[in-house]
Amino acid sequence: MAASVRCNLNAIKRSFTFNSIASIAEIRRGEALMDAGRKRDALNEWLTHDLPQRFENRTVPVDAPVALAWGDLMALAKRSGRGLASMDGLIAATAVAHQLTLATRNTKDFEGFGLDVIDPWAGGKTLGDDGRAIATRRPVGHAVDRRIQALYTITRRYTDRV
């Protein structure tokens, strides 16, 4: 994990971080597509043991509000001529429905949908000491008054490095 990501995650209270069940599904799919071996075994161990422990009672399911937000986001994407993968749509809908900031390296796929999105790998948007997102496009010190959902791309990148 990049030092900037580790620093940002360490700055957030665990109770402020959430995981989308859609992220878990994406990770499992990635694992299932990997060749058998050490990397796949390590990812499986992380997915089935480490991840549930880190996000105990903070994995957000797809419920009615998420489903409704997903429908709205997918329609918005289609009307605007943009592609939005179903799983990305579920992750975005989770953030919208639960008023969460989405932390991801893949910011471009989520822009233009009214989400608060930060990239912990890049400069310009960081997490504040109180676990809230600070965006440099806003006045300095203006905190986003939302909790952080900080797993989506961190886990995707984990599959690349294991």
Overview of this protein structure:
The chain is of the alpha/beta class and 162 residues long. It has a single domain (3-161), classed as 5'-nuclease (Rossmann fold), CATH 3.40.50. It has helices spanning 3-11, 21-33, 38-54, 64-79, 86-97, 152-161, and strands at residues 17-20, 59-60, 100-103, 117-118, 125-127, 133-135, 147-149. The protein has a 5-stranded parallel beta sheet. A hairpin with a 5-residue loop joins strand 5 and strand 6. Helix 4 (64-79) packs across helix 5. The longest helix has 17 residues, at 38-54.
Question: Which secondary structure elements does this structure contain, and how are they paired or packed?
Answer:
Blueprint: H1 3-11, E1 17-20, H2 21-33, H3 38-54, E2 59-60, H4 64-79, H5 86-97, E3 100-103, E4 117-118, E5 125-127, E6 133-135, E7 147-149, H6 152-161
Parallel strand pairs: 1-2, 1-7, 3-4, 3-7
Antiparallel strand pairs: 5-6
Helix pairs in contact: 2-3, 2-5, 2-6, 4-5
